[in-house]
Design brief:
Layout lengths: L3 H8 L3 H11 L3 H13 L3 H18 L2 H17 L12
Length: 93
């Protein structure tokens, strides 16, 4: 049986990226990890970026600048580690 951390290592995602997907999809982190991994393996990086951008917009609407700052770092890291579709979605301003 694999542990959560072993699954995370195999997913090619960070804990923060998984948490952003879980927040957006309203699901448990292990399910979010599976969704994120699937998307990254099937040319869905732009969908993951859109999920993180949606989370950033939600944090802005709520006035949660601390969470927004964390999510911006998550997005930046994701773009730098999954550059295949970098041009398809611009960074949030």
């Amino acid at each position: 049986m694999l542990t959560y951390n072993e699954c995370l290592d195999l997913s090619d995602l960070t804990q923060d990226e998984v948490e952003a997907i879980a927040e957006h999809e309203h699901t448990d982190p292990i399910i979010a990890m599976a969704i994120g991994h699937y998307l990254c393996c099937h040319n869905g990086e732009s969908k993951v970026k859109r999920i993180i951008l949606d989370d950033i917009a939600k944090a802005q609407r709520k006035g949660d600048s601390a969470h927004e700052k964390v999510l911006r770092k998550v997005l930046s890291h994701f773009i730098s580690t999954h550059p295949e579709q970098h041009g398809n979605i611009a960074k949030a301003s």
